Amino acid sequence: MISKEKQKFIRNLWDKKTRIEEWLFLVEWEKSILELLNSSFEIAYLYISEKFEQKHMDVLSNVVYEISDIETIEKVSVINSNNAWIAIVKSKENLELKIENDEFVVVLDTINDPGNLWTIIRTCDWYGIKKIVCSNETVELTNPKVVASSMGSISRLQIYYTDLKAYFENNKSPIYWAFLDWENIHRVDFEKIKSGFIVIWNESHGISEKIENFVTNKITIPRLWMAESLNAGIACGIILDNVFRTK
Questions:
Q1: Closest Cα to residue 163, out of 174, 173, 171?
Q2: Cβ partners under 8 Å of residue 64, min gap 6
Q3: With contact defined as beta carbons under 8 Å apart, do 152 and 32 qualify?
Q4: Strand boundaries in the chain, DSSP class E
Q5: Comparing C-alpha atoms, which of 16, 240, 211 is closest to residue 129?
Q6: pLDDT value of residue 83
Q7: CA distance 214 to 10
Q8: Is it the case that residue 13 has pLDDT exceeding 70?
Q9: Where do the domains of the chain lie, and which CATH numbers do they carry?
Q10: What's the CA gap between 202 and 206, in Å, rounded?
Q11: What does the pLDDT look like over 141-188, one tens digit per residue?
Q12: pTM for this one?
């Protein structure tokens, strides 16, 4: 059973400040917990229903967990439809990521919307991107909406938060950034390009001036009709599809 004290602590983890202070976050959904059990994340506490236990005895044989009633799990969950399990997970250390000579790294400049972040994480996982570098202003990885909707992709990617200006000063690989009215991405020969940074920026706030000077390759997704801008998550998908089309 989840004690009343632990229930209060779990609900406190809905708050960003508590997650940062405690270096813990919540994971829900059946698929997510199954992927979590096969990842490098460390689970501090795992509470599951008897039904979940019976269904997944094979993967739970070496896992420490507690049985809880469904009503309590529903009460402390961020997701209304979760009645099977909830995990309190330890956040990973924020380790610096370096670009290698044979890889592309996605860089996120002030992506504030959790929906955009989880969309980008899952898109990167789809295309085999292993590293994402985020500005300190980007929404946190452990945001409950990001964790729930990334569907386990966060367990396969390395994600690093930093000051992008300082980061680019120490990383000299090509930097691709989507602007309006620059080189058509459909005409860029990515087959000859082995590595580089792909920067996705916030369409509402625009480009961060402090890092614009580091851009080496300005590209554009050609606009064929009247929309003013593309959602950051969709733009990321279009760019990655063009990058890997000939790989």
A1: 171
A2: 46
A3: yes
A4: 24-27, 43-48, 66-67, 85-90, 104-109, 131-135, 158-162, 175-184, 196-201, 217-220
A5: 240
A6: 63
A7: 42
A8: yes
A9: 4-90 (3.30.1330.30), 104-244 (3.40.1280.10)
A10: 6
A11: 999 889 988 878 998 999 999 999 999 998 889 999 887 668 889 988
A12: 0.90
